[in-house]
Give the backbone structure.
Amino acid sequence: MIPLAEAREHVLARCSPKAPILVPLLDALGCVLAGPVVAQEAVPPFANSAMDGYAVLAADVASASSSAPVHLTVVDTVAAGVGARVAVEPGQAVRIMTGAPVPVGADAIVPVEHTSGGPDATVVAILDGSPSGRHIRLAGSDIEPGAEVLRAGTLLGPAHLGVLASVGVRRPVVVPRPRVGVLSTGDELVDDGRALGPGQIRESNRPLLVALARSFGVDAVDLGTVRDDRDALAAALTAAADSCDAVVTSGGVSMGDFDLVKVVLGELADMAWMQVAIRPAKPFAFGVLAGTPIFGLPGNPVSSLVSLALLGVPGLRTIAGRSDLDLPRVRAVAATDLDRHPDGRTAFLRVHCTWAPDGRLRAVPVGAQGSHHLAATAGANGLAELPDGPGIAQGDHVMVVLLSPPT
């Protein structure tokens, strides 16, 4: 057996980022920015109102109160998207909407709720003072021209897309998310609702792995099931390698396994067949077919999940150009004894992590821990990492690999 870290390094050594491309702004969500973005203009581009109300001279309204209002003549109305037509003089006010340009002369905004008079009034009563600069968003107060607004390597989320739009970048240069093909093989697999025949099982690994890969930030596609036929399998693997940035298969990677996947991959690709010192998911295969990384995962559904989470994710995120190669690891408190037996391997127990009232994470085992117990695993949002040994006692700390956010 080899350590998990060694298997991970083997994967990383043969994965490399995709070439940067231009993409439409909304398609950049979840992609990595290939280079820095420098603002060419100020944001906002002009001083504008942060409130619906009245643009005034602060000195005019300094003494205003509900018991002694200050009355100003309304000389104009300015809406967003329309320039101010007149300057504000002493004793005057301009009715203004949120986002509208601040008229020349005005240095404060009085919110409409601090006034009395109505939208068509020619005189407004100011019921509260507003100091100079109040409720005015100055030009460049968010972004100044020449500022680096996003660094190269930024993983683009919704707010980042808003920033890019605000500085006029509608087609950013990014490292695109990899297209990952997931296929399954075996005459025993049933993909539809027909009755099961002798020795048949319903296919679950492929939907699991496609959905899991998508949740980890890649564009996974379902390549279907391939029957146990040497030529059909060779053709499917070759086509997958040609059309995808990485390929994931499940089953046929154990030592001494006569599955056709292992035979065909051994002929077509430069593969390494590993026994990783973890439980579950000890068997793991990785290689390259025509320049495309191939991840050979175990056939048991929980084992395939663990393999993808621990070994697939670092490789796929490398292809995506990400710096956060691994899923997040957090420290949690074991809610119960996490028992295990020494066997020379690191065990990964499926747990559900919740926030306790004291602000700490609690890790609760989800139930049955067999590599075929997918129903119990569905309740897990993390993998508790138990080093080789007797386990972890209730109340002690345990490191957890998060599959999804704690509840």
The chain has eight helices and 29 strands.
